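Recap from last week: sequence in, structure out.
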Amino acid sequence: MTPPLIRIESACPEFQGRAWECSPPARIGRADTLEVVLDHPAISRHHAEIAFDQRGWTVRDLGSTNGTFLNGLRVGQAERALTPRDVLRCGSLLLRVAWITCGPARDGVRGLSQPVAGSTWKGPPATDSGSDLVLQAVTAMAQAVELRDQYTGGHTQRVTNYALLLVRTRTLSRATTLSANRHAAA
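Predicted structure tokens:
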């Protein structure tokens, strides 16, 4: 049986080009014994944990000093579901979920990405790279505002949620249009 795997990529200059492929649990922090080691002052020794169970992949904060955020929203110690292209912020460092697998029992479930053994497969292609860029830019700006001004955190989260909704809607409508165009041409 193929174990579930997750690929996490750095989306910040401090760890540019770094990536981690892990089976569960994937713990993030400064401690050398963890699966994702981020030696940075904004990161706690045991910062966050990514786990897998029958519900799928989840992330939770381990009581870190600077918090864990998923797509701009504070995670806390409650588990939050993870999907490909999600953006994690641990302290001030950004990470991106490149792809996830759930093993053969869950193949065919919408949203899964399954690497092929021996390939250099990097996950599903973006349906709209402009949407991904907008999502990353809006999330980064919202997080920067939240870091600078604790009093606008709630407003920043609403702006981020709205931006995420717009990007997803734009991506879905573009994907629907592309699909319709392919069927019409056939």
